[in-house]
Amino acid sequence: MSELKVESPLTFRTTLPELEGYFRPKSLDEALSLLSELGERAKIYAGGTDLLIDMRLRNIGNKVVVDIKEINELRGIREEGDSIFIGATTTIHEIKTSSLIASRLPLLKQVVERFADQFIRMRATVGGNLCNASPAADTPLALLIYGSEVEIASVAGRKRVPIKDFFKGVKRTILAPGELVTGVRVPVPQGRQRVKYLRFDRSSEDLMIVGIAGAVFEGREPGDFEFSLSYGAVAPTPLLFKGLQDAYKRGGADEVLKIVKEKVSPISDVRASKEYRMHLVEVGTRLIIKELLGGV
């Protein structure tokens, strides 16, 4: 009697599954028309750093791939009024090396500097990092604090959605079949910014164990400021805590942590236990408060 072989659900294959089709539209209108026609059968390919892994693991069935890399309208970083627009297929490397990002959005600059390694940064895109909707994604932590909006297009038209409303759960967003993220619009704070990003991980190539971003945006009057924190890998979606300055003035780091701990709900997995993640939340929050506000 031959031995029964049971294939692990994590079996990684070097070959991709057979596809129903592959399209490489040259314009946004062409891409939207394809997505409207294909519906749920379509899988969007930009950098492929998540999609290709899922395909090799056979987490995705025989789908139709729509490659959007050659659509110029979806790429680039530009200043538009009081905000900066980052196209969906702009790579993390392009954000990291942008002088505009470094000078106007320093928290995002810090985040992308800790994003994986150089090889991944050259391929991964900001749109893919958002649409993959991993609780451990890096860029949402900065984009949440800046109050960004995700720009979405379909054959029915275009819309902007606050990024805080974009994520619906693990690997789930508000995107409907036929819709495509075209970019993210990031408001630029008018006053001085003090920012800090902490990423706890096992290695730069691995997903974060916990990520914490903090920012102090100073107002016009002395002593007037807004203090916000965001957290990754401690809940089904990235968490934003905006306007924590009153809690800090009332009771320092202890009062801030009281608010944070009511919302975080980490899990235990191969990277860390939930108890260790909670420990990192406390330690990291206190470190950021000490650096940005001088308190402990």
TrEMBL record:
Name any one Pfam family assigned in the record: FAD_binding_5
Query: Which InterPro entries does this UniProt record tie to the protein?
Result: CO_DH_flav_C (IPR005107), CO_DH_flav_C_dom_sf (IPR036683), Diverse_Substr_Oxidored (IPR051312), FAD-bd_PCMH (IPR016166), FAD-bd_PCMH-like_sf (IPR036318), FAD-bd_PCMH_sub1 (IPR016167), FAD-bd_PCMH_sub2 (IPR016169), Mopterin_DH_FAD-bd (IPR002346)
Domain named FAD-binding PCMH-type: residues: 15-191
Coiled coil regions, renumbered to chain:
none
Signal peptide limits: none
Which keywords label this protein? FAD, Flavoprotein, Oxidoreductase
Q: Supply the source organism for this entry.
A: Fervidicoccus fontis
Name of the protein in question: Xanthine dehydrogenase family protein subunit M
Q: Which GO terms describe its molecular function?
A: FAD binding; oxidoreductase activity
